[in-house]
Design brief:
This protein has a single domain, classed as Fumarylacetoacetase-like, C-terminal domain (Fumarylacetoacetate hydrolase, domain 2, Alpha-Beta Complex). It is α+β, with helices and mostly antiparallel strands and 232 residues long. The termini are far apart. The chain is built from five helices and 17 strands. The chain is globular, with a radius of gyration of 17 Å. Strands 4-3-15-8-9-12 form a six-stranded mixed β-sheet. The protein has a five-stranded mixed β-sheet with strand order 6-17-16-13-14, with no helix packed on it.
Length: 232
């Protein structure tokens, strides 16, 4: 193959035992915890009438693995959203997934931040426009190391949390998801071909707020994983 120019490096996340995983796509789900849906002015979906979840994407090269996040351009409201990140280790079979097939796709989990240019997102919402510019920007997806799913017990018995400058900001119990991991993967499979190396951000609890230059953050997935970083 005679490329016009060399390809850019493939973004990668790192496992807890030092291996790397090339990232294919980053899928995200919004309003997946009821307290955050209310915080954003929306009515939480009920289990009986959930419809389709709010889905969006970030570019694969938005990941940050060293914790150093440059404050983004064109915003004065950079907000944090701590989320559990699902890492797929296999390609999905053709057709709609069963819950068992969805669970079998999962290699492991990470803790991450879905960083948001909230002012730009709000502008787009007010004009009924897509809000990609509020979500899919450079360095908008800090991610921890990845722990294999085989090393985790009952996922929904665990919690995620975020501290900024030593002060608690967010805490969410995973049992409070509206769509659990198989649900999310089934919904995504109806719209996209899921591939190994896909990351899925699964939604944030209440408490989203602004980050400033110099702020230090610590995100936690129970006692299993920690992501530490700074807004530079």
């Amino acid at each position: 193959m005679n490329d016009v120019f060399p390809p850019l490096p493939v973004p990668r996340v790192v496992t807890t035992d030092g291996r790397t995983i090339p990232v294919h796509r980053i899928h995200c789900i919004g309003r997946n915890l009821a307290d955050h849906a209310r915080e954003m002015g929306a009515t939480p979906a009920s289990p009986e009438a959930r419809g389709r979840p709010v889905l969006f994407q970030k570019p694969a090269d938005a990941i940050v693995t060293d914790g150093r996040v440059p404050y983004p351009s064109a915003t004065h409201e950079l907000h944090h959203e701590v989320e559990l990140v699902v890492v797929l280790g296999a390609d999905a079979p053709a057709g709609e997934l069963t819950r068992g097939q969805a669970e079998a796709l999962v290699f492991g989990y990470a803790i991450g931040l879905d960083l948001t240019r909230r002012d730009l997102q709000a502008e787009c919402k007010a004009k009924s426009l897509p809000w990609d510019i509020g979500k899919g920007f450079d360095h908008s997806a800090p991610v921890s190391t990845v722990i294999p799913a085989t090393e985790i017990g009952d996922l929904q018995a665990l919690a995620i949390s975020l501290e900024v400058n030593g002060e608690p900001r967010q805490h969410g119990e995973l049992r409070d998801w509206i769509w659990d991991v198989p649900d999310v993967l089934i919904e995504l499979s109806r719209l996209y071909v899921l591939r190994r190396g896909d990351l899925v951000f699964t939604g944030t609890p209440a408490g989203v707020a602004a980050l400033q230059r110099g702020d230090r953050f610590v995100a936690r997935f129970g006692t299993l994983l920690t992501l530490e970083g700074e807004i530079t």
